[in-house]
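Whiteboard transcription, Tuesday session. T.W. wrote the C-alpha cells on the left side:
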C-alpha cells in the first residue's frame, strides 16, 4: 500500500470510530507502526482534515468531512450499487427511490471511468418475491416515527385475524425478502412486540414523544431479545 492509499485508509478508519481512538489501536487496524500513524495524522491535518486529539490521548474526525466519490475503491462501489439495487427492489417505495437517487448522485460526481463501473458492476440481488410485490406505504411513516421519536397510533391485525388499536414506539425495521418486521415498544402490552408491515391496517404519526430515547429503547430491545426473545404481536 502506497502512502496515498494509506492516508485514505486511515481516514476511513477514523470515520468508523465515533469516539477518540488511540494511535496504537489505529496502528493495529492498519498494520503499521504507531510512529507511522502519528506522521500520517499530521499529514492529514496539514491537508485540511478536521482531526481533533493528540498523541497519547486519541484522535477523532469531526463530523461533516467527506471524501469525493472518486476515492471509492472498486469493492466499495460494488457494495454501494449492490445494496442500492437490493433496496430498490423492496416494498418500501420511499427508500427505493432514495437508493436510486443516491446512486445517481454518486455517478454524477464521479469521473467517466467510475461512472462506467457504477453502470455495469455485474452484481444484482436475487429478490424472490419478484418486482410485483405490493408496496408497503406504512414503512415510510414508521421510519419517520423513528427519526422524530414520536409514537404511532395503529390498527393491527394479528395472525388469528383479531384486530387491536394500539400506540407503539418503533425502534427497528427488519427487511426480509418479501416481508418487513417492525420491532417496537407496545404501549398496550407494556413490552416489546414485533409487527408485520402487511398486517398494519391503519397507522398515523402522533405528536406524543417516546417515553425514552430510541437509542435506549433499542438497547433494551436487544437485551430482551438475547434474554428470551420478544413475543410476536
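and on the right, the sequence the group agreed on:
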Amino acid at each position: 500500500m502506497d502512502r496515498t492509499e494509506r492516508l485514505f485508509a486511515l481516514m476511513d478508519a477514523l470515520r468508523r470510530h465515533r469516539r477518540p481512538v488511540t494511535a496504537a489501536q489505529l496502528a493495529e487496524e492498519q498494520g503499521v507502526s504507531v510512529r507511522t500513524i502519528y506522521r500520517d495524522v499530521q499529514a492529514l491535518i496539514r491537508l485540511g482534515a478536521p482531526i481533533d486529539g493528540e498523541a497519547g490521548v486519541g484522535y477523532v474526525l469531526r463530523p461533516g468531512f467527506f471524501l469525493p466519490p472518486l476515492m471509492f475503491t472498486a469493492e466499495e462501489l460494488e457494495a454501494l450499487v449492490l445494496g442500492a439495487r437490493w433496496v430498490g427492489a423492496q416494498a418500501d417505495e420511499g427508500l427505493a427511490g432514495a437508493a436510486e437517487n443516491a446512486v445517481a448522485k454518486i455517478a454524477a460526481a464521479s469521473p467517466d471511468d467510475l461512472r462506467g463501473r457504477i453502470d455495469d458492476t455485474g452484481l444484482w440481488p436475487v429478490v424472490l418475491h419478484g418486482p410485483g410485490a405490493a408496496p408497503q406505504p406504512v414503512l415510510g411513516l414508521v421510519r419517520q416515527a423513528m427519526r422524530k421519536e414520536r409514537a404511532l397510533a395503529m390498527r393491527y391485525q394479528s395472525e388469528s385475524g383479531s384486530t387491536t388499536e394500539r400506540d407503539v414506539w418503533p425502534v427497528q425495521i427488519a427487511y426480509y425478502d418479501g416481508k418487513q418486521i417492525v420491532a417496537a415498544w407496545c404501549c398496550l402490552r407494556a413490552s416489546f412486540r414485533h409487527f408485520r408491515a402487511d398486517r398494519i391496517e391503519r397507522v398515523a404519526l402522533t405528536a406524543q414523544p417516546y417515553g425514552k430515547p430510541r437509542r435506549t429503547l433499542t438497547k433494551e430491545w436487544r437485551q430482551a431479545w438475547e434474554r428470551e426473545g420478544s413475543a410476536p404481536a
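Someone added at the bottom: The beta strands are 51-54, 58-61, 150-157, 163-176, 179-186, 191-196, 200-209.
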